[in-house]
Design brief:
There is one protein chain. The chain has eight helices and 13 strands. The protein is α+β, with helices and mostly antiparallel strands. Helix 7 packs parallel to helix 8. The chain is elongated. The relative contact order is 0.18.
């Protein structure tokens, strides 16, 4: 995909500055998903496949209306159907559009050791560059939302790009363009949060969704895909949406303190070898291990 008009903020496995800067929107972009108006039509699934050039796959029926059991390397956008019992005992559908959340502090990028395989743009989009992917799958372990998916044939990892090519050209993502009910919205993070809060207030006052709320988890610094949930008390009911997602502790340790400690230990080892050489000099020829 062409990302020439997006300005880079962070690059996986990269030291120093961020090359390849360009022009970008002057605000953080954000997708708002209002789960209370989703009708499960799956138009967004079709639009995602068509825009990204993936073929339609045979659906899998498992006592649900979901197209697939889960997202895949070539199926980035999935409407999850979750049947639950409401407080009054009546059944209710809790449907959710599942895709990459584009975290402000992306665990995938933090975990990735490959230079340039994952890029975060200043507008908030987190994108994968498969040509730089080494197939280690560390990004999979670093993501608290179970989003990156590995292709066993290409040995590369894939995920939703939030249509970075469209956004870079000033357009909205394909899924939003296709939604017939106004469930999906796109704009600045500030505007989308305002709209989300306004919708929550409306739901609490004029519907049975008295426990409505906004899902924008702080554990990953906030996300650039946010939800209006009809029942925000337990996000897990919406197809396994984690209540308090965070970057795994071992990933933070590995790419943070452990990395610094390893660097310091290596530096001390080199310094010790140099000190030994300065003090004692090279081993004379003829001694064990010193023969030419």
């Amino acid at each position: 995909m062409s990302n020439g008009t997006l300005e880079v903020k962070a690059i996986s496995g990269h030291r120093g500055g961020t090359p390849g800067k360009g022009v970008s929107r002057d605000y953080d972009v954000c997708k708002l998903v209002d789960t209370t108006t989703c009708i499960g039509c799956k138009a967004c699934e079709v639009a995602c496949l068509e825009w990204n050039g993936y073929e339609f796959r045979d659906t899998t029926f498992d006592n649900t209306y979901q197209t697939m059991p889960d997202t895949a390397w070539n199926f980035w956008n999935l409407i999850r159907f979750n049947e639950h019992e409401a407080d009054d005992g009546t059944p209710q559908w809790l449907m959710r559009k599942d895709q990459c959340m584009h975290c402000a502090e992306p665990g995938c990028l933090i975990a990735c050791p490959a230079d340039g395989a994952i890029v975060q743009y200043t507008n908030g989009i987190v994108d994968f560059n498969q040509e730089h992917c080494i197939g280690c799958q560390y990004c999979v372990t670093g993501c608290p939302f179970n989003i990156p998916k590995f292709n066993n044939e290409t040995k590369k990892v894939y995920k939703c790009t939030l249509c970075s090519d469209r956004v870079g050209a000033g357009l909205e993502p394909a899924c939003i363009k296709s939604c017939p009910t106004g469930c999906l919205h796109f704009g600045s993070k500030e505007d989308m949060l305002f709209e989300a809060e306004k919708r929550v207030d409306q739901l609490k006052k004029h519907s049975n969704w008295t426990n409505a709320g906004v899902y924008d988890p702080s554990g990953v610094g906030g996300t650039h895909v946010i939800y209006v949930l009809g029942d925000a008390r337990d996000p897990e009911k919406y197809g396994g949406l984690p209540a308090n997602p965070t970057v795994p502790f071992f990933v933070k340790m590995w790419k943070g303190p452990l990395k610094w400690i390893g660097g310091i230990a290596m530096g001390l080892g080199i310094a010790a070898l140099f000190g030994h050489y300065v003090r004692y000099g090279p081993k004379p020829a003829g001694e064990e291990g010193g023969k030419q």
